[in-house]
């Protein structure tokens, strides 16, 4: 098995800084990045990938429209349906609100994992389509609705604030807005903006992952008393769901780069959008459980080992 991609990913500066953050948090260092900086970096990363995705979406040719629609339909269906299986499994050990909130996290997506996968593909010189950004945006919300329906059981459901948070949350608006701008902007003007965005992308991602490492290291402490099921689920669910993404990509005839992005979308877990929605819709669910699972375990696994392992699976299936 070619492990070059795995080693390249582990030794990239962004991933190494992520590990530095985890180690610093584990050793209880006072290293901290001032809160406004990670938020600004997150907005920049969403702006950059949305804008680039819009330009890529404009490049979709007529004979690709059917395939693109297939990807978007499969992505929305996965986001809405994944929480059902996760909820049934988690209910073996957890109460209804906690099981539903965790299930929603694992049906939704991680934008930062997606961004890390883009950087990985750029390093591997693999091509990918801008329409995958549309799949990212569409997968944010269905899992939130499914998770809340499972948690509430149809009772005491405040639909309006839930839909507002799911559809009009800041990250979703920025991502979709940047994608629309990239799609409709005059090509020469779009190209002049795309170059500086791409130039600062790697630096922004490296600093942002350092902060994610600090957060992940701190969140891991909260799982000490959670029992065996939550951490096991957080480690097993990503490769299982990502493998389903690879299988769907194979059936749909996607290029290898797009297949990896679909795998990452399927195998990621939300630690921003879903927790924000759960605080509104299901405050009885414990953030001390679902946030460390999605951020401390699943995110850490995906950005260090998951992405290159999914890539190796794709290389095997696609035969290159």
Can you walk me through this structure?
- Helix content is 78%, strand content 0%.
- By secondary structure, the protein is mainly α.
Unreliable runs: none
Helical run tally: 15
Counting helices, strands and paired strands, the structural category is mainly alpha
**How many β strands by DSSP?**
0
Q: Using the alpha-carbon principal axes, give the shape.
A: globular
Strand content: under 5%
Q: Report on the biggest sheet.
A: none
Query: Termini distance?
Result: 12 Å
Mean of pLDDT: 88
Radius of gyration, in Å, reads: 19 Å
Order of helices and strands: HHHHHHHHHHHHHHH
Question: Can you give the helix content as a percent range?
Answer: over 70%
Concise description?
The chain is mainly alpha-helical.
């Amino acid at each position: 098995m070619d492990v070059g991609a795995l080693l390249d990913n582990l030794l990239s500066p962004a991933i190494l800084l992520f590990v530095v953050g985890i180690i610093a948090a584990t050793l209880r260092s006072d290293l901290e990045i001032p809160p406004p900086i990670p938020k600004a970096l997150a907005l920049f990363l969403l702006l950059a990938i949305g804008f680039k995705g819009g330009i890529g979406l404009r490049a979709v040719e007529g004979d690709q429209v059917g395939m693109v629609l297939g990807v978007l339909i499969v992505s929305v269906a996965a986001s809405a349906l994944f929480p059902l299986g996760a909820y049934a499994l988690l209910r073996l050990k957890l109460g209804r609100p906690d099981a539903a909130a965790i299930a929603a996290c694992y049906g939704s997506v991680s934008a930062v994992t997606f961004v890390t996968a883009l950087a990985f593909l750029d390093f591997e010189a693999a091509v990918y389509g801008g329409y995958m950004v549309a799949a990212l945006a569409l997968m944010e919300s269905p899992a939130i609705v499914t998770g809340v329906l499972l948690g509430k059981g149809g009772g005491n459901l405040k639909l309006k604030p839930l839909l507002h948070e799911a559809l009009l949350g800041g990250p979703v608006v920025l991502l979709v807005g940047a994608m629309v701008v990239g799609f409709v902007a005059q090509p020469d003007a779009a190209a002049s903006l795309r170059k500086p965005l791409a130039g600062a992308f790697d630096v922004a991602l490296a600093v942002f992952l350092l902060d994610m490492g600090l957060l992940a290291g701190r969140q891991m402490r909260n799982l000490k008393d959670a029992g065996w099921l939550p951490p096991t689920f957080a480690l097993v669910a990503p490769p299982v769901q990502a493998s389903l993404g690879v299988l769907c990509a194979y059936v749909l005839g996607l290029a290898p780069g797009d297949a990896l992005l679909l795998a990452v979308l399927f195998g990621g877990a939300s630690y921003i959008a879903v927790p924000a929605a759960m605080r509104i819709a299901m405050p009885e669910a414990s953030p001390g459980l679902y946030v460390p699972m999605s951020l401390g375990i699943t995110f850490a696994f995906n950005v260090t080992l998951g992405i290159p392992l999914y890539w190796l699976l794709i290389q095997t299936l696609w035969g290159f």
